[in-house]
Specification:
This protein is of the alpha+beta class. It has one helix and twelve strands, in the order H-E-E-E-E-E-E-E-E-E-E-E-E. The chain is 22% helix and 35% strand.
Length: 168
């Protein structure tokens, strides 16, 4: 009979340690799930805005390709890019992640009209934005990204008309 009670005590201890291990695993999974849902995050801030050309929202897509670039002033860290949609709205992404690290940025912008090839070859493009906006040295656009949500609307003008174009 003593032998039996020893076996029963061993089985009871095994069962108790199995339940404890199972509770620890369940607690760990719950904690992991909470961290995922709380967005322990990638520390990237969101930046969106509207690009206007000559006072009107620039409509990307449908033959127009327009992009906004944010380059860190410090030249360290990743740059971010946003493609302008059909409503003139852009949203920045860094690589495959949505958002950008907080900090100060020089902003550039470029828009081109896509011209399909008449022979079925590669399409060409015609710049519709002033070339000065495509360089950090001449764009005059600068923005400080804060933590969280940011909005930065960009107002640009068409390239100046050449004086010689209108003459005959």
């Amino acid at each position: 009979m003593q032998k039996r009670s020893g076996i029963t005590a061993t089985k009871s201890a095994q069962k108790s340690s199995y339940q404890t291990a199972r509770q620890r695993v369940a607690s760990g999974l719950i904690l992991f799930g909470c961290l995922l849902m709380s967005g322990c995050g990638n520390n990237l801030s969101q930046v969106t805005g509207v690009v206007t050309l000559d006072g009107e929202p620039l409509k990307g897509g449908d033959g127009i390709h327009a992009t906004v670039f944010f380059q860190p002033v410090s030249n360290t860290g990743a740059a971010a890019v946003g493609v302008v949609d059909e409503n003139g709205v852009y949203k920045l992404s860094t690589g495959s992640q949505s958002g950008i690290t907080p900090g100060e940025y020089l902003v550039t912008y470029s828009a081109s009209q896509i011209i399909p090839s008449k022979t079925g070859g590669t399409p060409s493009g015609k710049r519709i934005s002033d070339p000065k906006y495509s360089s950090t040295k001449t764009s005059g656009l600068r923005f400080e990204v804060q933590e969280g949500e940011n909005e930065y609307d960009i107002s640009i003008e068409s390239p100046p008309k050449s004086a010689s174009r209108g003459r005959r």
